[in-house]
Amino acid sequence: MIVVPDDEPPVLAGTIEEERIKQLGEVRVYNSRAFGDEELIARVVDSDTVLNIRATSVFSRNVMRNCPRLKLISIYGVGYDNIDMQAASELGITITNTPGYSAVAVSEMALSLMLAVARRIVLNDRTIRAGGWARGYSSQLYGKTLGVIGTGSVGQRMVELGKSIGMKVIAWTFKPTPERANQYGVEFVTLDELMRKSDVVSIHVLGLPQTNNLIGKRELMLMKPTAILINTARGSIVNEQALIEALRNGVIAGAGLDVFADEPLPTDHPLRSIENVILSPHTASMVPEATLAGLAMAIDNIASFLHGHITNVVKART
Hints:
The protein is of the alpha/beta class.
């Protein structure tokens, strides 16, 4: 049995891919969020295959240990921070994902946030709607430096977009090589150097133990007071309290965020009351083209597994 434990808000429902997955076997789809281990176990316990759509479904050791039939978790998406990879390996559960499916969509969102913050678009819109006509300087990005953190498929596309509007682009990655620098057409620098030199810092690494709080108070203090931080990756990568303080105290000029440490963002969250940040509800990849491409790849991964040849297997990074 194939179980989709978390199609909420609906992604699979009503698409051509929903009909295709039904051709692979019996399918059970849940259109609400599973809260806690017990609820997720109850949904998954009879399955041998899971199509995991939402990162809010946390496959802990406890969940997987109590689902003895489970052999494959096919992630719709790139990140796998909601899965205990060590436990999955020990329990013989294969994890697959959909690399690159949303690179265009996510990088376009990052560019949109970057431009919106720099040109004060949202703030000016609010001012006009409130009856005002505030005019003041905004920031031109042509000729400025874009620092790209992470050079996977999204980061590589962001490098291209930054260059396309006339920015100088530098980058940081865990494993820089001259070959990769040449391939991507970018200069690799240390993280500290990137934070100091960049006028815009755009984050594109996976949510992993080694990227948790990668950007904290020390890194934010290295940034220019005129600089902008963009995060369309994972909320855990940026220390949220440190960012709040940096925005309030003018350590940096602004931020554009599509991801948060706690989602949905609590109604009383301090970020909601800060003017120099633009907030987006984790929608960077939510375009029809990316959605269908990601679903197709995730279902292809299931089909390949069922036919004995595994595709897009996730290898936990150390």
